[in-house]
Amino acid sequence: MENQLIKKIVIVGGGSAGWMTAAALSRYLGTHCEISLVESDQIGIVGVGEATIPGIREFNQKLGIDENDFMRATHATYKLGIEFNDWTQLGDSYMHPFSYFGHDMNGVSFHDYWLKLNQLGDETPISAYSPGYVAAKQNKFIHPNQDPKSVLSRYFYAFHFDATLYGQYLRQVAEKAGVRRIEGKVVAVSLNNAGGIKDVALESGQVIEGELFIDCSGFRGVLIEQALKTGYQDYSRWLPCDSAVAVQTESVAAPTPYTQSNAQAAGWQWRIPLQNRVGNGYVFCQQYLSDDEAIDTLLKHVEGEVLTEPRVLRFNTGRRNQFWNKNCVTVGLSSGFLEPLESTSIHLIQTSIMKLINLFPDQGFNQADIDEYNRQMIEQFEQVKNFLILHYKTTQRSDTPFWAYCKNMEIPEALSYRIELFKKTGQIARCDDEIFVHENWLAVLLGQKLMPEQYHPKVDMIDTAQLKMIMQQMKGVVNQAVAGMPNHQETINRWCKS
Ligand code: FAD
Fold it and tell me: Which domain of life does the protein's organism represent (predicted)?
């Protein structure tokens, strides 16, 4: 590899990934490097990433973005979690809230105490102890309290927003910081002697040279795959959905502070409420459903006037073999795609960018940094992959060929270990440094009705009558705190109405 100092960075692609990268690199690298971004209006962007997880707030804060201003500009609403309907069995419903459940006691996880009472016949769902869940279901929202003693400090939030407007918003941030935007289509990529990228040529004849190239060209992977042939790990045997159809509809009610994921015959349907409209889509598997059937089902299950033509998208769930190959780093859909069930794509974009900034080759390329970057990114993708598979594998449904396949499919060993451990002992295998941590796994494992055979023995150190009283109090504190919260729409009106 040619070991040059990085003076020129070229980003190919101006979707969310491209502009998030441009905004972050320009902020962190200042004037050390010249940053150009090439995008093709003719090709356009995928434009459907509308739901996020709480890490997005940290990314925006690092860019110095004012949250209310960003929310106004992107018609954003607050998001406290995702509700899953009909996933375990038809008629079942649970939420994955971005929230703690109750309080741990004597060094033992709260859910172990809940399990004991559940085994004794108490039917209170664990979600009754989650301030995030209780608020979401009552359509309430207030920013979390900063006082750690308050129960209202025990949840997090993310956003639903218009992804196209988010890209435009970040474009302004990046251009203000000196990023140069070049409109045009990359038609050729030439390689240097080391097999890395030397320059990209546009349809207009313009040639753009650089030392570091960032591929944000979406599913096409213009640099990382078409030019560098990096290769792809296919995840479709575990995550068989390969298509989606999306439509926008008018809002017929105040926006809910949560995303909905409703299982359908061959996949699932999303509902994402923004301030000015609702995003809807059916993620499905072509092997079991035609495009026409998917469109038909989607249109039957949306509310309000349909504002856009149904748009079909195809994808291949998986990831690149390497995320950083020679002098090219891939960010966004060009790096791989894990279907949108847990709204993780934008999160993976921000993680890619922050890891690149941490391992930035200031002194020229160093293979050890590249290997470490790849190791960390592979880990991230694998973690999300396993969390997503969990939702499918633990279904009890076999009413359609799609669900029968999911229920019976082989799953990665790391995931089956986690499921078995939970079933036998109630413990969740260590995941503190993962994207989804203890509470997230707990929400889905219990939501999908996996009940552990036992609870932690230390639970019995508290007398049962006393435990019942403590649990009753915890539930009361949650209910009382949520009762005093404003509703979601009021909070939007107060801070960020678009
Ligand atoms: P794109 O938006 O496709 O942008 C690619 C860019 O590259 C464009 O600017 C294009 O013009 C440019 N380009 C391509 N080829 C060339 C060329 N030859 N020359 C010049 N420019 C070129 N994410 C979430 O976080 N939450 C969600 O709820 C969510 N839902 C999704 C639902 C579906 C069905 C799909 C498919 C994705 C979803 N995503 C979601 C993912 C999210 O949409 C993407 O991660 C995000 O939009 C980033 O896309 P991107 O910028 O990588 O690619």
Answer: Bacteria
Tell me the CA–centroid distance for residue 344 and ligand 1, in Å.
Answer: 13
Concatenating the DSSP letter of every residue in 292-314 gives: HHHHHHHHHT--S-B-S--EEEE
50 close to 274: Cβ distance less than 8 angstroms:
yes
Output the average pLDDT for the chain: 97
Query: Which amino acid type is present at position 415?
Result: L
Alpha carbon of 311 to ligand 1 centroid (Å):
14
Catalytic residue among 79, 140, 326, 393: 79
Q: pLDDT value at position 3? A: 63
Structural domain count, the chain: 1
Q: Are 249 and 305 in contact (CB under 8 A)?
A: yes
User: Is 182 assigned a ligand-binding role in the annotation?
Assistant: no
Could you tell me if the CB of 336 is within 6 A of ligand 1?
no
Note the pLDDT tens digit of each residue in 37-89: 999 999 999 988 799 999 999 999 999 999 999 999 999 999 999 999 999 99
Q: Is the CB of 208 under 6 A from ligand 1?
A: no
Give one word for 189, left, alpha or beta, with left for phi > 0 and alpha for psi -120 to 50: beta
14 annotated among ligand-binding-site residues: yes
Ligand 1 pocket check for 13: Cβ under 6 Å: yes
Categorize the per-residue pLDDT at 5 as very low, low, confident or very high, splitting at 50, 70 and 90: confident
Domain that holds residue 352: 8-77+161-233+318-383
Cα-to-centroid distance, 47 and ligand 1 (Å): 6
Its ipTM equals 0.99
- The answer as to whether 373 is a domain residue is yes
3-state secondary structure of 88: coil
223, part of any domain = yes
Residues 340 and 313: beta-carbon distance below 8 Å: no
Atom of ligand 1 nearest to the CA of 332: 52
Residue 90 phi/psi, 5° resolution? -60, 135
Instruction: Name the 3-class secondary structure at 330.
Output: strand
Say if residues 185 and 191 touch (Cβ distance below 8 Å): no
HEC assignment per residue over 227-296: HCCCCEEECCCCCCCCEEEEEEECCCCCCCCCEEEEEECCEEEEEEECCCCEEEEEEECCCCCCHHHHHH
Is there a contact between 68 and 174 (Cβ–Cβ < 8 Å)? no
Question: What confidence tens digit (pLDDT) does each residue in 151-184 have?
Answer: 999 999 999 999 999 999 999 999 999 999 999 9
Please report whether residue 498 resides in a domain.
Answer: no
Residue 167 falls inside a structural domain = yes
Owner of token pair 């320059």 = 199
